[in-house]
């Protein structure tokens, strides 16, 4: 029997590719999208799939999704916090950055993860070897930062990494593994056309890693293939 894996932002990009890969491998997927009207490709996937409408920026929406998820699948084994936004173009100087871009990035990429994790925790604790996977980015690395690009996105993902460390420490006694994971540079709306990886290639590595995660990995910043990132936090 496969695992039950919830993926936020599963209607496009890496989220959609990951849902496809997991279903192909016999796992049960709960895929969420901010609007079901924009989740046609997700809803058409074959396999044991539940699609829920959920806006990670709305406490009420997240709570409603938890209720529906509990009624449909009960517990979940893995929570993949994938939903994210990239408000800027990426090459703006600080003088060109809009305050609202920082607010948007932190609202979704950090607070969205807080809301979803907090509300879905009871269902996660019903799962087998519960795991939380926060999809981060190499752009989050403070150690490797040498340019001034991606201000809002990079800062929000760095904050997500810090959140990951805190959650790992708090949830260790509950037996919940919490990691940050970079999917690599992927050809998506965020990654752009020059990225070397397709969403499918990235998803294959992520799927293998998250279904085998153990508490030995908790609190780490991982590559999609399961090893620690070489460039550091």
Key attributes of the depicted protein:
233 residues, alpha/beta, 7-stranded parallel sheet, globular
Explained architecture:
- The protein is of the alpha/beta class and 233 residues long.
- The protein is built from six helices and seven strands, in the order βαβαβαβαβαβαβ.
- The protein has a seven-stranded parallel β-sheet with strand order 3-2-1-4-5-6-7, with helices on both faces.
- Strand 6, helix 6 and strand 7 form a beta-alpha-beta unit.
- The model has no long low-confidence stretch (mean pLDDT 94).
Give the gist of this structure.
It contains six helices and seven strands, in the order βαβαβαβαβαβαβ. It has helices spanning 13-24, 40-43, 59-72, 99-124, 151-171, 199-210, and strands spanning 4-7, 28-33, 49-53, 78-81, 131-135, 177-182, 221-223. The protein has a seven-stranded parallel beta sheet with strand order 3-2-1-4-5-6-7, sandwiched between helices.
